[in-house]
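Quick start: what a row looks like.
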Amino acid sequence: TYSLTENIGKVLQGALFKDPTVLGIVSVSLSIISLVSVFTSIINSIAKPLYAKFNRESNRERLIDVYRFNTRAHSYFFLPLYLFFILCANKFLLIFGESYTMYPLILVILSLRALASSITGPNGGMLTMTGHEKMQFVNGAIYLGTFSLFLWLFSTDPIYGLSLAFLTAEIIVNIIKYIEVWYVFKCLPLDLK
């Protein structure tokens, strides 16, 4: 449902706001973030079978170790990238042409969205691979509903409305998943050691 929401958002941006420049910047920004997320999927594809294995073996300590390692890998690798996009959005978008630099805040907002997801850890994969698929399904539905609500609320802003809807939905759902992982496993994505 998360990638579905992203694609629906692109279509709605064009349908609701009819600004080809903004739509182009949103599309490029989402594509940039999606390219980075290819690497997160590689890390997650390694961790997910381990989540399932350690859960099946009732080895909670190893399960949490893998979860925290995965979270650290996400944070250490992707935090600098997202901070680069946030701090240098205008310069980075210039690669695609002068017209893409009109609204660099779009890339900043979408980078904050990805950063919010990254620092709360791969909690969705953890829930899915440990027998809590229903929670993750509900989270996807909440994401879609929250995104839709905030897209409607932000529809008066034809430039940043879509990006703000994505950011708000991502933060809300990641807080929910963070709480769910805490409730189920009694652990935080990063330990203080």
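That is the whole record. The mean pLDDT is 86. The radius of gyration is 17 Å.
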